[in-house]
Amino acid sequence: MFSTDGRNLSTSDRGSLFESLGSSAGSLPDESRETCKQPASTQGLTYREAGVDINAGEEAVSLIKGLAESTFIPGVLGSLGGFAGLFALPQDLKDPVLVASTDGVGTKVLVAKEAGRLGTVGIDLVAMSVNDVLAMGARPLFFLDYLALGRLAPPEVACLVAGVAEGCRQAGCALIGGEMAEMPGLYSPGEFDLAGFCVGIVERSKIIDGSMVAAGDKILGLASSGFHSNGYSLIRKVIEVSGLQLGDRFPGQEQTVADVLLKPTRIYVRSVLAVLEAGVRVHGLAHITGGGLPGNVSRVVPPGLCAHIRLGSFRVPPEFCAIEELGHVREDEMFRTFNMGIGYVLIVDPADVVRALAVLENQGESPAVVGEIQLGEERVVLQ
Questions:
Q1: Considering the entire predicted model, what is its pTM?
Q2: CA distances from 358 to 155, 331, 351 (A)
Q3: 60 with 163, same domain?
Q4: Pick from 162, 177, 206: which residue ends a domain?
């Protein structure tokens, strides 16, 4: 966990061939080993001179170990420091199925880097995977992260992982390991990327895959916190051509451009699980990411049915309207790129809608009935 070169709680450069060869040196003939010796006076290169600072990696690990352990939940075995994380499966399920998802944050990391604000993209990273696992009706169990960078700066790594830990706490899952890969040459100093991996669990009989969606079902929408982590290549292009800077006030808002663009992705785990645990008959769940409402709701609508979504039934936040106007982006392009204010969708049996709304409101949500399932050949229609 938090490892590279097969050594947990350290940093690495992936090309450490000689370290792996060293583990089998005992099988080499003596004369072969002699050829590897260097004269005592030779000043050899070091890993640090090649761009990888093991000491900095160890310092980073000391900063983030407590962050990870603060997310531990029942089921985590041992502590950080082994070659892999351990998690005991819950014993309260008759026929458990593991559910896995992996994702990244995309070019939003470039905004975070330019703004010098790294504390929220870790939340985004967790949200992208746990919300996907949730879409199968599963409860997230544990999370692992992967951080690749050109030069390891321990305070920056700690800031990034603090966001990951906060995302895990919001999702109720454990951060049980990860990887920091310092790769000079592949990444320039200051450049980094994030990826994450989540595993959840669900009773086989309670898997939600859209197969139960039927005509008459109601579509409930949960509000997003903004752009979440999708469409940032388009957003960055619009900001660039408009001449706005990250420190400028975002059009129509009191917040700066950086404030608006770096709002973390919402994590819907607790709200949706509360609905499922209340016995509401949920037939479909969709995490609204790249592709927007049309591209994601269509993934849980069976052939012969159509999700009719009423555009006037939910509020489109002003930041989306600003991007549309600044970039002269067509409305259909906006809806297939961004969530447009709806970050999660529940497709619910019509008899259970009132109960579902009550549970969601009790969780602090402001849910809206945004449409219904009808017979039809198009999977999604925006009206």
A1: 0.87
A2: 43, 32, 13
A3: yes
A4: 206
